[in-house]
């Protein structure tokens, strides 16, 4: 299990590092994929593949550990973007107005509502993965 958690740290470092490096030139869709979707895909995939090899206790630790690691990386990323000129460029590039409709990116990635959203997103998807595995008779509880 330690190997999976270390791999998660490496995967999140790569995901958030690439996002940080290219944020000024990213579209909002690419940003959402990198920040929200890729950590979820990794977490679900790692849990799914590990479910046959780990004990129930180890899997329960994994169900908590993987979303926690992703949330910590998101928070650190949000802190690094606060008052960062690259983030301002991203916001300006991805703010659009067409008539009475406008789309804008929030200025603060680490506002309480955003952190609650991230915890809920990463945690709920991992919980759903646990339920699916339980229903597949993989003895995950």
From TrEMBL:
The keyword Transmembrane applies. It comes from the Bacteria. Keywords: Membrane, Transmembrane, Transmembrane helix. The chain crosses the membrane at residues 5-23, 29-50, 62-81, 115-133. NCBIfam families: membran_MsaC. This is Uncharacterized protein.
């Amino acid at each position: 299990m330690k190997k999976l958690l270390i791999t998660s740290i490496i995967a999140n470092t790569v995901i958030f590092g690439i996002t940080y490096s290219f944020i000024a030139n990213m579209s909002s869709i690419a940003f959402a994929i990198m920040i929200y979707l890729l950590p979820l895909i990794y977490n679900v995939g790692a849990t799914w593949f590990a479910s046959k090899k780990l004990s129930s206790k180890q899997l329960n630790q994994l169900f908590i550990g993987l979303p926690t690691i992703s949330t910590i990386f998101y928070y650190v990323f949000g802190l690094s973007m606060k008052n960062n000129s690259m983030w301002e460029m991203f916001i300006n590039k991805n703010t659009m107005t067409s008539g009475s409709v406008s789309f804008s990116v929030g200025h603060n990635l680490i506002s309480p509502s955003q952190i609650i959203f991230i915890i809920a997103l990463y945690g709920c998807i991992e919980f759903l993965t646990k339920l699916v595995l339980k229903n597949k008779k993989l003895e995950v509880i």
